[in-house]
Amino acid sequence: MNLIALLIGLLIERLATQLFRWRRLRWLDRLIDLGFREAERVANWPALIPVILLAVVLVLPVFGVIFSFGGTLHGFAYLLLAIVVLFFSLGPSDIGEEIDAYCRALESEDEEQIQNAAKAIVEGDVPADERERIGRVEEAVCVQANNRLFAIVFWFVVLGPLAAWAYRVTDLIRRRAVFTAARDEESDGIAARIRHAAIMLHGWFTWIPARLTAVGYATAGNFDEALAALRAPSAERDASSSEHSEQLLARVGVAALAIQDQPDESATERGIRGATAAKRLVFRLVIIWAVIIAAMTLYGLTR
Questions:
Q1: What are the Cα distances from residue 55, in Å, to 14, 31, 33, 61, 213?
Q2: Domain that holds residue 209
Q3: Which of 39, 118, 203, 288 is the most buried (most CB within 10 A)?
Q4: With 0-12 CB in 10 A as exposed, 13-18 as middle and 19+ as buried, what is 140?
Q5: Three-state secondary structure string covering 220-237
Q6: Confidence band, pLDDT 50/70/90 cuts, at residue 2
Q7: Closest Cα partner for 143 from 242, 283, 10?
Q8: In this structure, how many other beta carbons lie within 10 angstroms of the beta carbon of residue 34?
Q9: What is the pTM of this model?
């Protein structure tokens, strides 16, 4: 049943692009901000405690729906619930659509559009230098594909819809904490501590799927280059678990692309070629994961 729900959910995710605005869940930002304000009242507590409590509060509604059905939640009812939860867990936006928008911006040579499209993928400031920006976008695609898709699929397959939604909740809290801390003038303030705690919590959920995704990039791309990058030590040994995972995904993903600069190639052409190659890498890995999950499901049914 999970396989059917997953396939339908991924199909909707690919085709129903006009529904993407529904799953941005902007209204949850107010609840998360409220949780951050409550955390300020217990500033003497470790910041991780209110962040975990906030995550539990946001997961409880989905848990309540599943628990209220009890043993009656099976068949079509379970399928429908799993599809709905998976749809709102994926994203918040389709990485393929953002890559296409970035490529169109490069073709238009409008610097403002390019910066905005790149920021949507990187989820932060991007370098002004064209070559640096190209590399940052390619790395970000490999990282965001795991955050928005593969990690959610992993938890959905392993523990079901509730786990997929729990992962999405940690990502929502992380995004909002980073945004809030960026507005905080005091780098050692409560906002910075909440940001660190939110990134830590999200990093725990990301650790396993990030490494599976990195191995998948090696399988779907240039295996030799990606394997060497997979074995290479991290550049920053003091980085957090979340940063280690992002560095691994970026390093292995870019190595799997194995893109070589071509003579007489403009920065625009190089940027489009790299972004398109990253999009194809992600799509190939989606197919590989779907085949593996289908095989595991069939094997389980025959035992």
A1: 28, 11, 12, 11, 24
A2: 2-302
A3: 118
A4: buried
A5: HCCHHHHHHHHHCCCCCC
A6: low
A7: 242
A8: 12
A9: 0.89
